[in-house]
Amino acid sequence: MSTKRRSNGTNKGKSVKKSKEGEVAVISSDLKDDVIRNGMKDAWRKKTSFSQGGVQLDCDPFPHCMIRNFVQNESFVENLRDELLHLNFHSKSNDLYKFQQSDDLKKRKEHHISEIRSLLFHQFRSWLSEVLGVDLEPTVDISCAKYEHTDTLLCHDDELEGRRVAFILYLVTPWDLSDGGTLDLYNTNEHYEPVSIVKSLLPSWNTLLFFEVSPVSFHQVSEVLTDEKCRLSLSGWFHGLSLQRPLRYTEPGAPRHTHVLADETLLFEWVNETYMDPLYQAQVQQEFEDTSEIRLPNFLQEEKYTQVIEALRLAEIQWERTGPPNKRCYARAQLQNLPSCLKECWDLLMSEAFFLLLSNLTGLSLHALAAGDEESDSEGQEGPTDGQEGQRDGQEGPSGTGDGEDNRNHRDGQGPSSTSSSTEKTPKGPPVCVGELRRWSHGDYTLLHDSVKREFALDLLLHLGCTGWKAEFGGFTSYIAHDEDEELLTVYPEENSLALVYRDKETLKFIKHINHNSVQENEHAAFTHFYDFSFTYYE
Ligand SMILES: O=C(O)CCC(=O)C(=O)O
Ligand SMILES: [Fe+2]
To answer: Which portions of the chain have biased composition (kind: Low complexity) (predicted)?
Structure first.
């Protein structure tokens, strides 16, 4: 990446510096034009489209507006870009994003940065306030972001108390669709949940985009695919009275099942006999009780493992895409027409004998015959990885977290079940489980979110078809402590290895976005996706 973009080779030393420092940012003349201002006002009120000069408003799927040549003087923008590139950048990565963020720009004294800050939060804010017919506070909320190869910011709505209008000023060299990094806008369903991308905007030099932050303003920065260019931008929010937010929709939890009565021979046919030895089980249990996690390599017997892999690769499995995209994005096998061998593996994981095996391996009370069942009480157990209290979820695990540090997480922590359930005791019924057979490939992920209950649970992951998979591709399961950025445990895909993790109510998990490296660095097409059986057991 060159920082010398369109630099003027004829200017020299001191004189350049001096003229740079005196350089004033001049806002696009379109924003001083009464016809445009009135046209915009009218269109915004009616939620219709408007286009004149460099200003273009579109209200589908939610109101957003592009202003081309936002700063009139080109050289100012070039110098601003150079100034920004000299800042310190910090790598940011969690469930929702991977990118680099600059030092805080609120108080930076550099000339071009202070100039653009003042232009945005004085001149432009007053134009915006008038056009939108809303009071916008002088609060300065701005940072600089750098997205490079495999960086992304997944589906989110920007909603956070006080944010009223989001803006992004793009400072990119010519950008193509094939470079990735588009700003994708989602439509929403009757529950205000994002459904699919209906518009993709290409970033372009000196173009400012703004949109209203609302319950339906779902968007993402798609993964940057170019490894030659950097997607540089200034972005932030104008603050004002937030729009009314409807109650967040709570998904119905996937139904949980008690064990199925299956012939015990299933267990002996399928599971590596090492794990059937009571002495070995006792050792595993000891380790699990100490660490709340364990990996059991070569879990399926060789013959069964080979059959499963063949079925996964060759058989006709009906995969359905999961959503909504602000929560999850991967393929899930439909159970109705699962090939018999996979159905058998599924039955194994749900069988009474398997519940007993898990009890013996973990010391949890998943079966009446498990030792110590009477006195064991999940509420009293040390949590998996951090020993804190409280998490319960109804679906695949995660619950919301705040990211107070930089406000990029865009979750409000106000899900209907986010606080109340953490101290409640769950009435005990028989042990139950819920499971999925999933396929993971480029672009897939799960995100932390607020709308799930928190509870103690045993997670089981059996990875298949992932030989050659690298951590840098993503696709690993990350366990984190609620309300903290601290990573507690990472489960990397390992071939035919069973991972067991006992989590408490405060432990959340997500699957890291699978990036472009998974396609680019894999010579073997077979490695571009992998599978897992993902089950959760509740005492
Ligand atoms: O850079 C963009 O196009 C959008 C950035 C964004 O959505 C955010 O920072 O919240
Ligand atoms: Fe955003």
So the answer is: 415-424
Count of CA atoms in the C-beta half-sphere (13 A) of 351: 19
Nearest to 203 by CA among 224, 227, 228: 224
Q: What is the rounded average pLDDT of the residues 381-407? A: 35
- Report how far ligand 2's centroid is from the alpha carbon of 316 (Å): 39
Tell me the average pLDDT across 295-317.
95
User: For 182-239, what is each residue's pLDDT tens digit?
Assistant: 999 999 999 999 999 999 999 999 999 999 999 999 999 999 999 999 999 999 999 9
Residue 450 CA to residue 327 CA, distance in Å, equals: 10
Alpha helices in 199-244 (DSSP H): none
Alpha carbons 505 and 393: distance in angstroms, whole number: 8
All residues at 6 or more sequence positions from 369 whose CB lies less than 8 Å from its CB, including other chains? 356, 359
398 CA to centre of ligand 1 in angstroms:
23
Pocket of ligand 1 (CB under 6 A): 153, 158, 168, 183, 219, 221, 233, 235
Asked if 277 and 248 count as a contact pair (C-beta separation under 8 A), the reply is no
**Among 96, 104, 111, 125, which Cα is nearest to 27's?**
125
Q: pTM higher than 0.90 for the full model?
A: no
Nearest by Cα to 396 from 433, 360, 370: 433
Q: CA-CA distance, 533 to 527, in Å (whole number)?
A: 17
Best CA proximity match to 40, nearest among 28, 50, 53: 50
**Does the structure's ipTM exceed the value 0.90?**
yes
Q: Distances in Å between the alpha carbon of 29 and those of 25, 44, 132?
A: 12, 20, 19
Q: Which amino acid is at 235?
A: S
Using DSSP's 3-state secondary structure scheme, residue 119 falls into helix
